Amino acid sequence: MCLSRRGFVSCLGALGALAACAPVGADAAPTGPEPTPGLALDADPAVVVPVVRTDAEWKALLSADSFRVLREAGTERAFTGRYWNDHRTGAVVCAGCGLRLFDSGDKFESGTGWPSFTRPAAPDRVKVHRDVTLGMVREEVVCARCGGHQGHVFDDGPAPTGLRYCINSVSLVFRAAT
Ligand SMILES: [Zn+2]
User: Fold this and answer.
1) Considering the entire predicted model, what is its pTM?
2) Which among 9, 19, 70, 122 is most buried, taking Cβ atoms within 10 Å?
């Protein structure tokens, strides 16, 4: 991941972002571009059927920022994404495939600068993998349908789960409640 100069700089950025993951209580307005979903499949399928595409296909479907996070496990800088300070009622879907991943009712103020949720919209919407990159052991959260990287889950969240799903805004697209 850190072979190229560009990749190295990207890793440094990720480290800085991680350092900022501790609550700091900032209250800046949400900024950043609205992510563009690569696909518009069923948001709430009865059964989550995996979607597999090549990197070239994903590059054609996604914005550069979404590709970097979803397909290369990048991390957006804290307090720069569109949704960390977003309080609208609705849900967020995967920017890669449109699967509904999290609901606004499970969102909470973590102070980290990333959208934070206590649980996914349903247990089958995300998968969690052990991530040992950057010299740390973390639990990576990916979309259950397209495998797109969403963020990480930590065990310092609020009730009822005690979990904190720390998710990149650029991995998500907001959908208002209808
Ligand atoms: Zn997805």
Assistant:
1) 0.79
2) 70
